[in-house]
Amino acid sequence: MQPGLQRWLQQHCQSGSEVCAGVVVLAGGEAQSLQPAAEWPAGGALTPPLLNAARAAVQRGRPVVVVPTVRLVGASHNRVLALPIKATAPGGSGVGTEKGAENGAGADRPPLGAVALAVRVEDPTAVERLLRELGQACTELRLGAPLDLAVPDSANAATERLLHYQALLLGGTDLAEGALAFTTELAARLGAERVSLAAQRRSGMELVAVSHSAEFRPELALVQQIIQVMQECADQGERVAYPALSTEVPRIILAHARLHQQAGHGLVSVPLAHGGRIVGALLVEWAGGAVPVGPQVRACERLAAAIAPLVWLRRRADRPWRDRLMLALDRLPSRLRQRNDPLPKLIAAACAAAVAGVTFIPVHYRVGAPAHLEGAVQRVVAAPFDGFLHRSTVRPGDTVKAGDVVAELADQDLKLEARKWESALAQHENGVAAALARDDRAQFVISRGKADEARAQLELARQHLERTRLVAPIDGVVIQGDLSQSLGAPVQRGDALLTLSPVGQHRLVIEVDERDIAAVRPGQTGRLALSSLPTDTLALVVERVTPVATVREGRNAFEVEARLGEGAATLRPGLQGVAKIDAGSHSLAWIATHRLIDWARLASWSWLP
Hints:
Blueprint: H1 3-14, E1 19-26, E2 35-40, H2 47-60, E3 64-66, E4 79-86, H3 98-103, E5 111-119, H4 126-139, H5 157-171, H6 175-190, E6 194-201, E7 204-210, H7 221-236, E8 240-242, H8 254-263, E9 265-274, E10 277-287, H9 295-318, H10 321-336, H11 342-360, E11 362-375, E12 379-382, E13 387-392, E14 399-400, E15 405-409, H12 412-438, H13 441-466, E16 469-471, E17 476-480, E18 490-491, E19 496-501, E20 506-513, E21 525-530, E22 537-552, E23 555-564, E24 576-587, H14 588-607
Antiparallel strand pairs: 1-2, 1-5, 3-4, 4-5, 6-7, 6-10, 8-9, 9-10, 11-20, 11-24, 12-19, 13-15, 13-18, 14-17, 15-16, 17-19, 20-23, 21-22, 21-24, 22-23
């Protein structure tokens, strides 16, 4: 066995899923002395029938297709393809295809050997494609040079150049960057005016790179013409040259002719095929209007066959996840029909089980809504009369006891008012005494009335003085009102200065959306997660559903009052969080879609007459 041929055969057989086994034979002088030079897999049961087919191809000097009539145990192939390998002549392809015989390439030279493959194809038309791919692969053994299978691959300079081109294509961060380096290097190597590379997309051919052009605008007319040329080549699945060679098979060349007429270049377009599908196209343009013949054109074909898998791999790696998902879905039906591939069936069964579970298995359904804490009882310290704020002894968050002074109002004006009425009272009492001494009844009544008025005003002033000291009505904590920033400010009678709430006595208010209020009833339980304690949840029990809706942030919401369980004594009023109320069991599908279904029902009810 020859290591170079063994590696070549293994790579070719593993590049497609249709190939089951392969063998390469070399002639020692006569067709009957053919000796196996490489086989894959080694020591396989298919080697004897493959050797027979290879000998038949060498004897006949043309491809041979054998349909086995007796199936071997464990064999999965249904056809055997054998192709003779002939010495390469100038202008020839080096393989025993009918096309090579027509061109006269090696027609008078005996075959040097043959390649035989055991394949499994359901479509008989795929046989021609497999023979064509095998013929192109055979030319890679020496890349157009006279065939010498005894020379190891490491000594093949053309193979090194091929690896160099593949390294350029894989070297960039994406397909476009690697393709630019590849096309620029190839244009310099072939002496071409321009080299273009395109990849096949769902919408059609997409230009990836143009030699010596880091950027190009897809809307330009020239770019569109290049794309049409490569699309025309890809649709036919064959190499297209314009002007056509005398030995060329007639092709459709409308787009090629238009580009040639505009640019005046000779064109050679080669499709990139991988796995029986066209994945892109390569276009080479030479100045002068003529297409070079011989090694350059054959080099383009061999290079296209070598880079097609790399273009497909890079294009698949660069696809967004949406395209990869759509491609996987497109391939799923065909993979499900394959008997020897259980993975898609297992995935489909798992997906069906997941859909059934989501649709039919009930889970706990909870109604979530924003919530905040309030004091169970709230007392307000209000301004008893019009005045000015003099002093504040507490701030929000401070704990106070009943009777503690929390604020003071200015009392200078009230003291002056009290002195005024004290003087007026003394004056009127003296008038009462003088009228009584003179026995002046009328004056006595007038003075006594004025004295009573002054006494009442004095009492009112004294009460105001006593009420300038604002005290806490209950034991609790200050939850609202920071008077330290408003000292000296005027206040009016009835203004709320401070708000107090008892310590440890809270009421939870949950703002439930009107779309979910029908699922909430008194007595239901739930959990509360506060913004300050997101990792700790508190138990709650619904006590009351307020029957009046309020507008909160552009939506209608109902206030639901709930009682907290243990652990709420250390909380402070004003804390906010999210409450979830247990509302029975439903399937995940219902939980995810019930709001959409309700909206659709309401919309249809409003739209229909």
